[in-house]
Amino acid sequence: MKNWFFIFLTFLLAGCSELIDPPKKLIEKDKMSELMAEFAINDQMSNFFPQTNIENSTRFTLKQKNITATEFIESYKFYTATGDMEKILNNAQEIILEKDPAAKDYIDKKLKENKDVPAFAR
């Protein structure tokens, strides 16, 4: 009886290897990085132009990339649950640095001020 219990427990643990199932329309990691970079740029634009509506710019970015809000949310949840979000955010930061090399000084300054800031809060 103990052997059967052990075998059942082994199959149960092997079957539950992922925390969350991937969504039907999972956004690729590279495309997700591009989206996160665009969202960060849009967020910074609101600092320079307070009348900017971030929600509209987010909708425009998603529409431009042919992605629905539901697809983005489900992909974001999946990547957060699997632990891939930090890699995606680091890639997004690299995309921003490619677009604006002067941003590197600003990022380095902020990282020195806040040494223990996780990737999602940068």
UniProtKB/TrEMBL annotation:
Entry protein name: DUF4296 domain-containing protein
Residue stretches making up the DUF4296 domain: 23-98
Pfam families referenced in this protein's UniProt entry, alphabetically: DUF4296
Listed InterPro entries: DUF4296
